[in-house]
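W.,

You were right to be curious about this one. When I first looked at the sequence I had no strong expectations either way, so I just let the prediction run and decided to look at it fresh. Below is the sequence, 236 residues in total, followed by the output.
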Amino acid sequence: MSRPTIELQQLTKIFRSGTSALTVLKEVDLAIESGESVAILGPSGSGKSTLLALIARLDRPTSGQVLLDGAPIQDRSESELALHRRHQIGFVFQSFQLLTNMTARENVRLPLELIEAPDPEKRAAELLALVGLEDRGHHYPAQLSGGEQQRVALARAFAAEPPILLADEPTGNLDRHTGSRILEVMVQLRQHFESTLVLVTHDTAVAQLADRRLYLIEGKLLDDEQSAKEMLGPVR
């Protein structure tokens, strides 16, 4: 049996401030298979974004470990981790995180240049075409609608054809209609590139697109909706 693409073992994260301590994640165990899509639901402040940051090794756990393709990543150097993220992980954020002084095409071209991909200009244009923005590549983020900015962000996230995509409330800043269109594009791209998806959201409608739904409540990861409701009430 092959190892999971993503595996979390007893993952705990505690934030400390003076004598105070806030436990955000409590001994979380999770295994995600290659090509699987998993949605993690929870209210704002439940630790969903922290969980993604730990998977990407943008933050360090207090205890426990993260394994990617069966290998623990906690002992890797920062340069090794940066290289790993550049080639292996795509990110989609609620706030788009586009570089405002670059055009749409330049935003998509940048990660291609960082991995020294052949003909990054042509590839950036192809990726923008995949998200329906072939005629908007010369526009800056301020000249694009929210939905268009998120589509640019999707094209950028898939630039390196990453095996893992991490999406943090990708429709949180969009209206329902635009958000639905963005989700359709994201699902199409994930299937096209055969990426493993970890999506965090507070929206049950968004979570329905995933193969599996989990609930992060009071630092614990639950796989049963009824248990989540009993702890916190319905997850909206």
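Here's what jumped out at me. The first strand starts at residue 6 and ends at 17. And, maybe more interesting for your project: The chain has a mean pLDDT of 90.

Coffee later to discuss?

I.
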